[in-house]
Design goal:
The protein is of the alpha+beta class. The chain is built from 3 helices and 2 strands, in the order E-E-H-H-H. It has one domain. The chain is flat and about 40 Å long.
Length: about 70
Amino acid sequence: PVVAICDANNRLRNVDLALPANNKGRRSLALVYWLLAREMLKAKGTVKSDLEFELAEDVDDWESTF
């Protein structure tokens, strides 16, 4: 499956799953990837709660590593 981070100006041809988000701003993309990473770790069982993840990583610190 093809997953895409799309805003209103993107075409969805050949995209199986569209994640609606601002895909042009650096901070917006950092937030989307931070949320995806958090949910993936919760699904794997590595992180049990949102609070545990937030204590480990702050979105501002995570965004500044790019």
